[in-house]
Structures are given as C-alpha cells and as structure tokens.
Amino acid sequence: MKKVAVAALLSTALVFTGCGQKEEVKNIETEKPQVEVNMDESSEEESVENKVDEEVVEEEEVVEEIQLSPEEYKEIGVNELGQVMVMMYHSLGEKNAAYVRTVEDFKKDLQTMYDNGYRLVSLVDYVNNNIDIPAGYSPIVLTFDDGHISNFNVIEENGEIKIDPNCVVGILEDFNKEHPDFGLEATFFLNNTPFKQKEYIEYKLNHIVDMGMDLGNHSYNHENFKEISSEKLQTTLGQVVEMIDGYVPGYEVNTLALPFGIKPKNENVKEYVYSGKYNDREYENIAVLKVGWKPEVSAAHKKFNYKAINRVQSGDGEYQFAYWLKDLENNPSKKYISDGNPKTIVIPEKYQENIKESMIEKFEIITY
Q1: Among 99, 107, 129, 277, fewest CB within 10 Å belongs to which?
Q2: Residue 250, CB-side half-sphere exposure with 13 Å CA sphere
Q3: Spatial distance between the Cα atoms of 238 and 217, rounded to a whole number of angstroms
Q4: How far apart are CA 150 and CA 166, in angstroms?
C-alpha cells in the first residue's frame, strides 16, 4: 500500500461514524514543474537546471511526513502495540462450517473488514512490523490453509485461462478492483499438488506471486508433527520449499502454518520447525502460525513470539471473526491503530514498557 503523507492528514481529517467507518485520507500530489530549456544558450540552461533543482527540493518538502501532535494521536486513537487479527481460512463451500465459508459470506467478510477500517498487510510485513497503512486504520492479515481448489480455481474457455470469480483469488482481485485501498495481500499455505489442478500449478503459483500475494509452507503431506522425527520433519518442510522453487525459481518460502496446529513433542526435534535442511537446501521460517483462536499482539510488543502466532478463525460463532470484531470495536484501546508512518511506533505513554527492546533500535518511538 502507498504511504500517506502526514501533511495530507492535517488537511483532510478522519471522520468517525457511529458504525466505525472512517473517511479515506488522501495523498498530496504535487505536479512536477514544466521548464523549457534553450539548448543553444549554456548560461540559460545552467540557470534553468538550478531553478529545477530548487523547485524539486520545494516539492519534496511539501510531501515530507510531519509528526502529529499528541492531541491528534489521541483523537485518532493511535496504538501501534495493539492487537492484530491474523485470519485463518481454509476453503469455500456451499455451507458454513468450522473451516468452510460460503462464497457470499466470504465476500461479506471482506466488506465488513473494509467498512470497519481494516486494511490488508502481508504476513511477512506484519512480522517485520512494516505496517504501511493510513493513519487511523487497522491492519489485518489473511491466511488460507491446505491449497484447496476453492482457493484458486481456473476455467479454460476456448483455449483461454480464466480465474473463477467465485474462488478466493478471484474474489480478492475483484474486491481489490472496487476497493484498491484495501490491498491484495494474502498468504496461501500449501501441501503437495497445490490447488489440485495439476496442469495449472505453475500458472497459479506464479500468478499469486505476481499479484503480490504470498506462498507459505503447510508440510508436503500434512503430517501430524507430534511424534515426527527430525529427518522426516525436515523432509516434509523441505519438499514444499523445493516444490515451490521448481515452479517459482528463487521465491523464498519463509512462513509456516502448523498442520493441525501441532508442534513436535520432542524438544530436540522442535528446532527444525523453525529452520533446517533438505537435499542441501536450507529453509528458515520467520513466522510459525498456530490454529489459534484469538488476535495476536503487535510484532513490536515484547510478548510477540514469531514461533507461535495466534490466528482468528473465520466464522460467526464464539471466539471467531464476528466475536473478535465486535470485541475490538467495543474496546478500541486494545486494537492496533496506525499513525500512517511505517518508520515510527506511536503509542499511549502508559504502554511504553511493553515495547520490544529490539524495536527501539529500528524505529522512532513516539509516546503521547
């Protein structure tokens, strides 16, 4: 997503409505000066070049990000140590179930996220605390397990490949066309034969990457890791990395959704969940996701643990998406709310002791 210049924030206020919607903050766009140069007169040319340089400097100063006042942070409710919903979806189907969402309800989920001020960020950006969304909005992460065909289905008509508009990828792309400020970030966690249509695997994986979405590891055969050996664990994770590299050369697979949400019981084996080697190919996971049942803290929070990231299950039941959406709306102080600048971490002063120490060196910390 594009950055939002804070200068624009000052001229376009966020409007909060009773249903939690916010009016979009607009970017400042400065028209580049058009200067005519006489190539026959070197002195005039040099003078014009200097003039252009001066005007470009002035243009840069216009869009330079400016720190908001404590009152403005308070009005927006900025809290970049707040909770983030990492959503867990599996497949789309005719009826809603524990891990199944109907096409219509999945579309409604996206609209609900958008209307309530959520904007997509990738899992990798979330883990790296690279939250680049407008001030006053909240990040949300989409994840999809198992590589079901309903996540990415293609239809061939007259020799032409078309994306099924009622599969996850088709729905996300159509929603993004209507709401480009929502984003298109999502992570698909894969086993063998991703998305089932063997003849289209290469097309699908490359399309996902080309669109800015991500591919993750879900083990090659969806094994239960509880009693697994270190050799078999590295094999099943390494096979996914090797498979994806075969279709998308050079793509780095560095995120893992634990099959069944289970880690190895043996501590000596558990370390290979995070990094290992298969066929002389090394892998390292910067995010390991549980099945989970609740939102996760900001990656800048001292309690954040990339080795055990909670997820929110899709659905309308207790401790599912609808429940946590309402909980965060009723308790906005618990929610991650952005200041619009990915280079800073802005929080109420009372939360200062919760900042992860390593973040102090990487980001400017602002309290109010």
Answers
A1: 277
A2: 1
A3: 9
A4: 8
Q: What would the two tokens of residue 318 be? A: 């207790």
- Print the SS3 string covering 92-159: EECCCECCEEEHHHHHHHHHHHHHCCEEECCHHHHHCCCCCCCCCCEEEEEEEECCCCCCCCEEEECC
Which tens digit of pLDDT belongs to each residue from 33-51? 333 333 333 333 333 334 3
- Given a contact cutoff of 8 angstroms between Cβ atoms, the answer to whether 43 and 50 are in contact is no
Q: Which long-range contacts (CB under 8 A, 24 or more apart) does 327-333 make?
A: 328/83, 328/85, 328/138, 328/295, 329/20, 329/116, 332/77, 333/77, 333/79, 333/82
**Sign of the C-alpha dihedral, residues 190, 194, 195, 196?**
negative
Query: What's the whole-model pTM score?
Result: 0.83
Q: Enter the CATH code of domain 82-341.
A: 3.20.20.370
How many helices, marked H, and strands, marked E, lie in the chain?
Answer: 11, 17
In the chain, where are the structural domains located? Answer: 6-66, 82-341
